[in-house]
User: Fold these one by one.
Assistant:
Number 1:
Amino acid sequence: MNKFIFLAAAFIAWGLQLFYPTVSLAVEQKSQPLKIGFLYVGPIADNGWNYAQELGRQYVEKSLGNKVETIFAENIGENAEAERVMEKMIAQGAKLIFATSFGYLEPVERVAKRHPDIIFMQLSRTTDIKNIGNYFYWQYEPFYLSGIVAGRMTKSNKIGFVASHPIPPIVQSINAFALGAQSVNPKAKVKVVWTNTWVDPPIEVEAAKGLIDTGIDVLAFDQSDSQSIVKTAEDNNVYIIGCYSDVHQFAPKRWLTGACCNWGLFYAKVAQAVINHNWKPGVTHCSLKNDYVKLASFGPAVSPTIKKEIAVAKNKIANETVSIFHGPLKDREGKMRLAKDQKPDLKWLAEMNWFVPGVEGSLSKGNK
Amino acid sequence: MSTVSFLKNIRAALISIAGSLAAICIGLLLVAIFLVAVGRNPVETYIGIFTSAFGGSFAITETFVAATPIMLTALAVAIAGWVGLLNVGAEGQLYLGAIGATMIAITIPNAPSWQMIPAMFVVACLFGAVWSGVPAILRAKFGVNETIVTLLLNYVALLLVEFLIHGPWQDPSSSSWPQTMAFSDAAQLPHLFASRVHPGLFIGIVMAVFFAFLIPMTKPGFIIRVIGGNPKAAAYAHLPVVKYIIISMLVSGAIAAIAGFGQVSAIEGRLRSGISPGYGYTGFLVCWLARHNPLAIIIVSIFVGGLLSGADSLQLSTKLPFATVNIMQGTIFLTLLMFENIIQRFSSATVEAKTPEANI
């Protein structure tokens, strides 16, 4: 009989614990490390966007040691699935969640409203909700530098760009890339093909081959995965500019450089702020200045002269002595987008939906 | 047409569920070998998945949320199956339902919810029925294989959604992100308590129970079973085969469309790509696992919903890569399908209509 009562009590306790996980958590909360959840839109083995995010997470674990504990989920769609996974992260005790893709904002907003005590970091989008921080990565800065390399290296003056979604961060990168190329080679043209997907290797390779057939001799891209496009470029003897992760090993001969992310430094800083209880919402700009974005290593084809040129340009951008987008700047239809002496601000950048002259390819609603 | 046949139907459902459970256990054993090989404790892993799917109110409601579109699309496949047709197009019909509901939600955004919700529901069903009506007419009038047509229309439906959210329906305020504007509150289905469970679940359960009565116990149900058993004999007996085939397919598409309506109205609150991570195909699988038995579909879809939602714990707690989720689900589905024949031998009851094997 005693045994039965004991079992019943244990069972009830177990049931209570399931329904009220906070009961047991609240007691030992103080001494516990900060639990951080990372939400990835694709597989971490993509050698690109998500791999760079994963390196960031590993850096956070390494640099902050036992002050943090991290969990992550890969391949999480930018839809209601993300909502469920974030809720489960929170149920496991996550206090800080990095939502590392553009389309996560809507699910993040819904979860953040339900959990005002949890801090969320949303990429590339702004919101009014107080427990969501926003971070923009100015990938266009290393893309401008890559553009200089591409402009120097091209013989045909035709450069290809396999682009994912026609959203402002990507349009910024393409425009800066074209401006970089034209700064050293005014005849350089950038041909853009959209895939409308973050990752789909067969479609990406198809787009890359289509561009190669039009006579380009340098190829850039912003797809989340790297391997298929970089290898296609190497196999077709076309120079390649990488994106997000440094994967020169896939194109030992044709790799030039790349526009890469350096998330670890930034994520560790955010985590430290949360641990110190001095985290504040607001916008962080990940740029060359704070080293949160960077240029990849150079390939064998890049001459020392070009490397020197890049080093000079990089210093100017990082020191903010020059601005990549500076007035007067017209779009390719001739409309004035940035007046003389006007400085580009966040709003201006976050609404960029036009191309500079010299960029070919559609950019309109419903483009394909 | 008696309670006896309904009870037989329940018996058939129980046999198929018991058989499925046995198959699942063997599938889990196979996956356990894999888990041991990668250095994880299989028992802990499975407890983690179970807790993540059914441990606590949040987990259970999330399982129901995933089960809802699966249940509805599985029913859609079953309804076509009873008259001997293979509807592989539940995914496309789901998307058409989502398009129909969205069309109403964004064209009359200021309508009150008592007008909005029924209008969205009706138009969603109509759109889904159109999508399944095309293969139905092609099949009934010209003998075109409905399997191929429904399958290919899935891709057309997906591209149609992509076109709409990249083009005419794109939200101007979403920074060019491909999605429609958010639905007004009136266009969003209510949720059960604080969860994300929405009326779609209850529609699915009520439909399943309704068909569990209709098929074995009524005259139309009898005709459906005859057509499904042998369409030539049914035509010879002057049964309205063409009419039943077309009506069944229309109903099938409409029910799959309800799943899409639920996804945009109750879950996402707008139309965007990826509202269904293949629920229509999962529904197809669930329908076959449940051997076209509507009551078994309820149980199996909740189980599979739990498998989808609980698999999160593989990543979050067990720290296994996402691919493990695919390995586990694939193995379990495979053992279930392999056991299908073995289960069939133990079950003599074939109250529910024949599965459309004769037509493959």
Number 2:
Amino acid sequence: MSYLPNFIFLILIIVGGGIFLRNILRIKRNINLGKAVDRSDKTALRWKQMLRIALGQSKMGSKPIAAILHLIVYVGFIIINIELLEIILDGLLGTHRLFAPYLGNLYHILIGTFEILALLVIVAVVVFWIRRNGIRIKRFWKAEMKGWPKLDADLILYFEVVLMMLFLSMNATDYLLQQQESHYIQAGSFPVSKFLRPLFEGFSFNSLLLLERSFWWAHITGILVFLNYLYYSKHLHILLAFPNTFFAKLVPNGKFEVDEHIKKEVLMMLYPDRVVSETSSAVPSKFGASDVFDLNWTQLMNAYSCTECGRCTEACPANRTGKKLSPRKIMMDTRDRLTEVGENLNKNKGVFQNDEKQLLHDYISAEELWACTSCNACVEVCPIAIDPLSIIMDMRQYLVMEQSAAPQLLNSMMSNIENNGAPWPFSNQDRLQWANEQLN
Amino acid sequence: MKLNVPTLASLKEQGQKPDVVFWVGCAGSFDDRAKKITKAFVKILNHTNTSFAVLGTEESCTGDPAKRAGNEFLFQMQALQNIETLNRYDVTKIVTTCPHCFNTLKNEYPELGGKYEVLHHTQFLKTLIKEGKLKVEGGTYKGKRITFHDPCYLGRANSVFEAPRDLIQKLDAELVEMKSCRAKGLCCGAGGAQMFKDAETGEKEINVERTAEAIETKAEIIAAACPFCTTMMTDGIKHHKQEERVKVMDVAELIANAKDL
């Protein structure tokens, strides 16, 4: 009978952890629906990039207030999670404050630090909420943020406050228990939760014990729920920011991918006499991208990693001047479509059933794609190295090469290049005329 | 004074090879405003006795606008033909006044077999100064307020932020920055083949937004380093009816003027 709590805890961890694992595997499967692209090169440089951008948050600094607040929540959560180790072991072993006897004074310092961090996290989260809902910073209120994205953003903040409050309430009641019974484990220092004590004073030992246990259970359950909430949330970035920065492209922003299949075709066309040495691989079924299957896996991982902060959209010249294009929406649409495809796979035993839908038109309109100036502002500003531009370019490629659906003026430009080697209708014979013209 | 513009073909006939090829670009060859930049740059090349040549009628569009518009096939057709030409002349070093050509030649040609040292003209001019071949003093621009508009394909795309600024500093001018500059520079609106189409419906044109930032700096001159930016910024200034007060000029033009070339 006395092992019942341990057993319940074990079940809780197995179920919570199990669902999380299933979700992670589904995300991995969905990402792998993307086309292959080799990012196994320059491992040392990639580690460096990940440590700098994801762990070091080097790109957050451009917005100093957000950067500091974000850093507090980030450091707070990582460090407070040390406590999680004790909580899990306590739960499994039926102990209470297992580490206290081994760590001595350090334990006091640790618990005290966790409390201060918890308070800082609460303050930061409250400021975050005010920025979103009080000051209503513009990038949080763009068209694509209506509905679930808005609710998701707020829910994350509520989750974090509740978890921190549970942690502090647990400590406050624990301290009171320590005061009432000398055989109760005496450990920890409580610089923050002491201010919550008045709420619980006057309670009997048993009521306090019930409260303390309730907070403890609610806290660990809350963490497991939050962990599983990630799958549905933009908050996935806390995990995916790391692989996302690791596998991000290392070449200059201006270098767009050169299509190898097309290269073979063009070489054969221009120089039929030259033997193409490589065995010609299968011709792709389509050029460019009209659905998530046509994007590569890093682009799909980008979509799952996006936390919808909107810096890209704020920096986008097209969006700044009122056009429909929003790089953030490109990423959100890609994820939404990928989720839809994933659910289709779940329902149909892993075999995708045609749903008469695709990323292009059903999610992203041609108007959005054609508004891009390929200026790389969105890529540059992303705090975790997401590349919305590459998706835009792949989709343009589909529009032009598969559907000949470029705006009329671009068709003229392209036929000019084809016919006379310049985007304007000038004869190539006049290319050097400027050299003989009058000076100024 | 007449410009001395040798072509690679003419030099080859004489058994000569230039140190560097000047890739003029389509805008620099055909667009009236951009041609002035081309000429200004050649004046400096002539003044410094730089051994250079152009491809002339053998030059063709790099394929950049086709690629950014989504036509990878046409891009590669252009690229492979240009590479064939460049390799036939054993070209090793290219300088260009167009950041779009610069980016494409530097980043997208190597995989297609075109491996060259590619410089933007602001980088090249800086080298000329460093080597003592070009001496620049303020002259007409001494003390003038100049703001620099970062071309996307020079700055953000290739991290060249300082070369053009260093050149402006050499003019003893007062360099002032716009609200969005360097890696955060705001596009002029021409990139990604937008130059050749109408903008999508919105509240305003991008160049109007960008030139508003430039006007805010109270600069008398907007220095540019891209023929397309020059056009877009000039149009933007006209939109704001500031063309009497604010001039848009390429860095090469500023230097050529300062030297009275």
Number 3:
Amino acid sequence: MTDINDRSQVDTEPVTPDTSVSKAISARRKLLASLPAAIAAATLPALAFGRAGEMDIQQCSEDTLRRVAAARFPDVTVTDHQGQQHRFFADLIQDRVVMINFMSIEAEADYPVTAQVARLVHSFADKIGKELHVFSISYDSTNDTPERLAEFARQFDAPEGWRFLTADADSVVALGLKLYRAEGRPHRKLDADLIHYGNAASGLWATVGSMYQDLDLSRRRIASVMPREVPPSPQLRQAGPRRLNTHGAIYDNAEPGRV
Amino acid sequence: MTNRRDVLKLGLAAGGMAATAHGKVEFRQSGLVFPQGFTPSIEAAPSPPIVPFKDPLFRMPVATPEPLSTFNPLPDGRRHQRFYDFPPVDYYKENIVQNRWVYHTEGPYAQGSWHWGWQNDAAGLFHAPGPTYKVRYGEPVLVRRLNNLPPVGDPDARVQFALPSITIHLHNGHTASESDGIPTDFFNSGEFWDHHYANFPAGFDNREIMNTLWYHDHRLDFTAPNVYAGLSGFYLLFDDLDSDNENDPNPDAFRLPSGDYDIPMILHDVQFNQDGQVVFDFFDGGLGPRVEPEEDSDTIYIGSSNFTLFGMLGDRITVNRTISPRLTVEARKYRFRLLNGGPSRLYLLSLRLERADGTVVDNHPGLKFYVLTNDGNMLQEPLEMESFPLWVANRVDVVVDFSAFEPGDKVYLVNRLEMRDDGAGESGRLLDEGDLVMRYDVVPQNPDVGDPSRIPDFLRELPDINMDEVRRERLWVFDYDNGQWTVNGRVMDPNRIDALIEQGSAEVWTIRNSGNSWSHPVHTHFEEFQFLEFNGKPIANDSFLRSRKDIIELGPNEEYKFFGRWRDFFGTHVMHCHNVVHEDHEMMIQWKIVPPGMGD
């Protein structure tokens, strides 16, 4: 076994205790790669990995898979749009309520997911950076430099607490892999993507479609995982149903007349 | 950037999608697609070992009404459609709280797993599943549900993965929208909601009488974790025929096994960490102060490597929230109401006999089910079946006649269906031996009771299908696009109504699975329907599917066509995939019943 405290190992080829097993997995993956579904599967890491060749992509993906399987959340190094480096989990996520999406500057024109995140960010106003932290992760590692992301952030008037992150392709794929189970054929007609939201301290995680219409409801969905205090009272409040023939938001029937 | 070869390959994978100079943006933003390589936690981090068939089956208490004078504030009829047409004869309260629940009395399980459930007062029994309602047609009830769960962030909140903001759906009650428990009608910690159940058959047609219903959480985005955390239970409806009395002197009564011999059983598959605590597979439950990883590294649960949207599988199959239980049965007939409570696992159930001397028999003539219902609706005639499928939210009532066996025999309930590793559907294979779900230990009949029960030759007639009532047809395509579950190419939008249905009309709906490897137990609320066709062919008269239903067992590439009616109330309801992980991500549509002339 490799001693992880052995500094002589630094800068040498990483050694896995189960290299033979890895090779077996690798062989199996190569077999899978010959199947149509796996061909589809191999293509999008190609985007994140930039110009890497087919086998490189396969190998990178496998390394990533192994790395992710051992982590509760890939604690990869990311760089934010202000040029600061962070450990993704330890520095940015742990013990926080967060909102996370994947994006690229180039794709935004076709598919304005960051604009949708921005609507949510601004609806939370001064809670951003305090009660809610927002991370937009670029999967276009080649083009989306911190400088370009900083300019992009300015376009959305991003407050402190909304960070645009870039990382090496391997790390981006690791994060994507943790947050997605995206296997199958892409469908370009579908105008929807996921915005993840969660409370890492409590372990609550969910998603909201990025092409949401109702800002107030989406905001409320995200706010629902924030810590909240219930005033101590023996008397519970009636949440619903609302009185018939009164109007209000569909999701809180207790407040007659609320629009 | 991608080179030309990659782009071409990408185009191939996308089914002929045109390759452009901007191959990247052909994929919607984060349509990140990753290689195979998913190891489910049931393989990577199995639950602690158990001693199977050690613990008796938990029998849920029957819900008991409470005096109206104990309700403060009093229920308000102006909040409910047709409240004064169907004034409640009984009022119930449910106190939903967090406590420890013992799934198994050996090993780390014995200390109890933090759970959501029901407890009337601090001294009362805490239990999950919830109380079993035994109510009758013609006797409306009101249920006040009190959310006394610790709020998010409370130091006492121990169920880390579930959201203490809940809505309880009565599946599949003929219930007005505001009492149906739709995903957006949620109530938070410190709040309550009143549900009015009118308990009359749809269209006042006695052929629409249902018998086995259940209630469960339906919270927007969090149904899977919240049901998994404990929020499910039975709601049984009785009438003059299915009368809850095996000695009923009424010559028309079914006289099915009743009382102690009529047993609701809900199946949930659950995953545990080494500390015996329930885990939801996608994340480890965070690093909350109560996880205390430094204390004992065994208690750190590493969830699956993906935030999987495909499904949640547990390796411990529980019945009434007991792992692999046993039930002592007399050598007589029993009615078992089998319900698959999810989240994602599908079953194919059969029986196996083990003689007292250890001989295993798979072909004994007593090893069969007399199937009474499909989705809780009486069939026209009972069917004798050696096995039957039980998809998520299916309710199948069966009679098993243990008089075919000897005292000392052990009969096992066996699941033979293998799931895909990722929980998205069937693998397409059957398990050789199968999982032993629970065990029935046969003892002699109680001579004071005997077996007065019967299996009638005829049950309930089906309502007419009258195509003249059909106002329009609709097509709903269930698929998977860019990492999300879709219906007609769209994800659920709580502010969008996908169908405006005129009250009193009938429609014909086609439900299609465009995926070639995923299964979807599709459920539509409010009224039962009848299948017209499966994959373009009519349903045979003696088929298990010749029944009123509310679940469509939509396998890969399959298509069903059904006839349905929408009557008696107005308002919004939903249709969704009942693999509740798919539902949460966001395979659901909303339909609304509107006055005649206002439909789409």
Number 4:
Amino acid sequence: MALVLLVAVAAASIAIGAKPLSLGQVWHGVFQDSGTFSDVVVGERLSRTGLGLLAGASLGLAGAVLQALTRNPLADPGLLGINAGASAAVVTAITFLGVNSLTGYVWFAFAGAAAVGVLVYALGGSRSATPVRLALAGTALTAALSGYLQAVMIVDDAALGKMRFWTVGSLAYANNDILLQVLPFLALGMLLTLFLARPLNALAMGDDTARALGARLTRTRALSLGAATLLCGAATAACGPIAFVGLMVPHVVRSFTGPDQRWILPYSALLSPVLLLGADVLGRLLVRPAELQVGIVTAIIGGPVFILLVRRQRMAQL
Amino acid sequence: MKTPRNGPAARPVRKGPPVKSLRTRGGLSVRVEARSALVVLLLLLAALAASVVLIGTGDYPIGFADVVRTLLGEGNPGQEFIVNDLRLPRVLVALLVGAALGLGGAVFQSVSRNPLGSPDILGLGQGSTAGALFTIVVLGGSATQVTLGALAGGLLTGAAIYLLAWKRGVHGYRFVLVGIGAAAIVTAVNGYLLTKADLVDAARALVWMTGSLTGRDWDQVWPLLALCAVLVPLALVNARPLRMLEMGDDAAGALGVRVERTRLLLMLSAVVLTAAATAAAGPVGFLALTAPQLAKRLTKAPGPNLVPAMAMGATLLVVADWSSQRIFGADQLPVGVLTGVLGGAYLLWLLVTERRAGRI
């Protein structure tokens, strides 16, 4: 079922865009590429769709892992400021250090994501960390980091020209090079995450029980944080900060799988790209022939969902 | 027969700063905390001194004594023009904006019961920004229209957050989280508007978004002053109920506080003040977050500390404006950059200490 949805959205993402193509042309472009104009269009949409699939899956997984790790239903790479950390580091690299290639600044994205990740974990790991406090800390961090971004952009007009598009989160600049460059990092992160499902299940029972069951707490936590950093950092480096995907999807998944991470994680990986690509297609349709960046669409969908989650009397316990 | 009570328990020793009560014969009494009063006095003096220094700073420096003489109406015409028409309104806007943001921040932090729950983090700053961006980018409006747009944006966002957080009363935590959600949505809209703009508009919008005092004149002073004159007393009258609200809704209700009404009035005045301040100077980063906290640490008094927060906000903004002119040169960078950087550092420190104290 999830797979069917995924295929449908991917197909829509290839078929729909500013240049209307018939289904025949799409078919031709995908399977018999001969270099005509419509084939080139399809080729670009293919890499965009590929990036959307990968980035969506990573953000969803990262969200699920963070929610399990901090045992906090409101954890999300965007809300906790991890994406903002990655973008601040990338902007620093582009503006001050003259790094221009994705391979160069992806390392800065990791560093930024890791720094904020460790900070958030340090806050979230404490016993009195409630969802509210963690979310507030993340939002405040995001505010500080975006203030820094603004300062950089005011000083440097060229940076403003480039960064104002990147900082909203978009799939529009995808090409095969970007895809290939982030692929190894994302694949590593995803693999790592899928192996973490069982230890994370143990973690959900509380530290003492988990230890009694033979789980290695420190190792699990460090690996989870590492995986989330890899996934968020690479996804942010490739398409800019995208919020709320990692928040919404695990909640939807949990509603039909129950609390078992062995189901939550794979389903999150399958359904998050559905959301991300769906949002991307929606963004292309809404203001044709221009487009809304996918980060904006996810925030506009995700914000109300977030508020709904908050208004529900009993926030889903993890 | 009563047993005589001996030992230290017999005499309760009051800890903390001395508190005096002013009483009138009609039975009215006002608690005056000596340390708070002293802090407010010192902060006001500091604000005054910094203002005079700030007026003297610029491309045409004027000495301390000359500034004071000109302000008292005894300067020469050239200095009078520079001081009264160019620099005084800017300083007044800074003082008023600082005070308004300080008060708004104190009220919000008290209502949300969290030192991070300030209006700029809960979406009000972003809301005002959205209004201003919309006016700049879509309507291509003048400075006055941008101000009005920002005011409308802030008020709408505030109303939306309050209504969405309403569910048999507004709870601190729901209020905070709804605010965060709203902030995220509005930030996305702002990002979209910024990508729609051409580069010149985008640069103008960005300076506005950071918070700047450049080129403020009397047109900004009067509306802000009028709003402050109405809303600040309204908030201060409710300071005592607010302090009781910090003990929890039930306890406050038992003490005779009309919980929702008090909260609505306070939030209303805080939202309007914040929106007006933001409309006048842009969302100056972190001022509303830091001013109440710093004030509280100076006075060491419990409760929301509304008046010290106002004094602290005014002082901070004037000092920040002066420092940013000294460090970066006159009007090179908007003051929001400096408050943002300092606020970020302060935030880190706050997170660390709050965690150590087990409050986060």
